[in-house]
Amino acid sequence: MLALGMNIIAMYLAIYDQRIPVKKFGFFLNGLFHIKNSGSIIHSLEMVPDVYKNANFTGLLLFEVSVVFYACLVFYFYSPSIQLVFDIHFILGVGMYLAYCLVVPESPRWLFQRDGPKSKDAINVLNYIAWFNGSSKRIPLDAHFDIIGQVVNESIILN
Question: Containing domain of residue 96, as a range?
Answer without folding.
Answer: 2-103
